[in-house]
Each structure stands twice: as structure tokens, then as C-alpha cells.
Amino acid sequence: MFGFLKKESSGIAAPVSGICRNITEVADKAFSSKAMGDGFAVEPDGDTVVAPVSGEIVMIFPTNHAFGMKTKSGIELLVHIGIDTVSLNGKGFTALAKKGDKVKAGAPVVRLDRKQLQNTEIDLTTMVVFTDGYDKPVNLDCYGDRVEAGQILIQD
């Protein structure tokens, strides 16, 4: 009846459309070993990387291949687009948000230029890594399934 009384759905969403994967399957030991933290990954077939949580963009790499976020409840996470994508020096990545922006889960943050990236043979698997404030084990029901960017995968 009154829209302002409706509780905003919260949770952790897929950062991009594609196939959901266990972080241990990622082809980069820094992520698959969970050295940076637990999380999950998506093999993307979409072109827009979105905020997986509602919160503040606390950092975007100058190459636009990764960004960090912090929620009001103190969860800090890193979204890293691809493996060895820093070597592209930003080619193929366009930031749609900036440091300090407060965004809702599902808001576009980075756009991928697939045409430019397809010639690089770079693995675009996108990782969401919890770097602080989230100590539950990440074990999702969607592993192996297709997910949509912004789809809630972990309920708060």
C-alpha cells in the first residue's frame, strides 16, 4: 500500500550475467585458493558488470577491471573482472560509476567492450571476493547454472 514502508530486498547479487562458479574453480590461484577471501565467480556472457551489493564504491582501479565496495553493515568486497586483465591497461573496460558513489545492488558499474576483448583471449571470469566483514562460508545453489546480473544469490 505505502511504497515507503516496503523493506528493500537485500543480499548479494550476481555481478554479471553468465554461469555461476565456485571460486575454487577459477583459473587464478590468488582467487581459487581463497588467499584474498572467500567468494564466488561468474563466467560472463553479459556486457555490464553491476554492483553485487548496495553500498559505496570505495575504489575503482585506474584500468577499470576491478572495484571495491563497502556496505552499511561493514561488508567489504572486491569485484575483479577477468584474469590478468590488468595487463590490458583499461582497454575494453568503461567505468559507469566512480569512487564515492552510493549505489544499489544491480546498478551498472563497468561496461565491457566484447568486440575489443574477444581478440585478447583473456579469461573474463568475474570474481566477487569478500575481503572483510563477511565470515560465512560461501556455498551457492547456483553453481553451474546461468544467473542474471543483479540476481540475488545470497540472502541477507
Could you say which structural class the secondary elements and strand pairing correspond to? mainly beta
How many H/I helical runs? 2
In CATH, the topology is named Glucose Permease (Domain IIA)
Largest β sheet strand count, sense and barrel closure? 8 strands, antiparallel
CATH class, please?
Answer: Mainly Beta
CATH superfamily: Glucose Permease (Domain IIA)
State the low-pLDDT regions, or none: 1-8
Q: N- to C-terminal separation?
A: 24 Å
User: What is the mean pLDDT?
Assistant: 92
Identify the strand order in the major beta sheet: 9-5-6-7-11-3-2-12
Query: What is the helix content?
Result: under 10%
Q: Using DSSP, what is the number of strands?
A: 13
3D structure, described in words:
The structure is a single chain. The chain has 156 residues and is mainly beta. It has a single domain (3-155), classed as Distorted Sandwich (Glucose Permease (Domain IIA)), CATH 2.70.70.10. Helix content is 5%, strand content 37%. The protein contains two helices and 13 strands; from the N terminus they run E-E-H-E-E-E-E-E-E-E-E-H-E-E-E. It has helices at residues 29-32, 114-117, and strands at 11-13, 18-22, 39-44, 48-50, 55-60, 66-70, 76-81, 93-95, 102-103, 108-112, 126-132, 146-147, 152-155. The strands form three sheets. Strands 9-5-6-7-11-3-2-12 form an eight-stranded antiparallel β-sheet, with no helix packed on it. The chain has a three-stranded antiparallel β-sheet with strand order 4-10-8, with no helix packed on it. The protein is globular. Mean pLDDT is 92; it is low at 1-8.
